[in-house]
Amino acid sequence: MREIHSVDPRLTTNSEGIYFVVRLPKRWQLLAFRFDDYHEGGHPEFWEAHVTPVLVKAWAFRLFPSLSAAERCQCELQLKAELDLHYDGFPRGRVTWNEEIDRFAVFHGSNLKPTMKLQRGAIERAFGISGRADWEFDEHEQCSLFSAEAIWTHLPIRERWKTAIADFD
What we know:
This protein has four helices and five strands, in the order ββααββαβα. By secondary structure, it is of the alpha+beta class.
């Protein structure tokens, strides 16, 4: 008997959206927000509503291992409040449809590094646009050094990534 694999229909349809590439305790993770699944919005709104909760949950046990549940909850709320201010600290970008040329554009800040083990193809697949996208650098999508340093202060991340002001290798 042949095994049948189901394909997520979102990956066969295309969508505009935004993405973040964030560091979790054990790996880098792409967080893609397709506008066919979420309301259209900007990076700050998605960061506060969806990304910082993921970061706080992922890092909480490492940051607050010996605290009681109540104490950990309080620390998690403080950490979220701090991280909410720094949506531009991790690599991010936007996927938009360019009707004039019948292709998608992926605007990015040129912050991905090979050590992140996340290639452009993964981002294109997340939005269902493989082979139908032009990648365009956008200054606005660059990581802010100020925000990256704040993230490095609050999360025990040793690895450094390119920011608008400095490049850590």
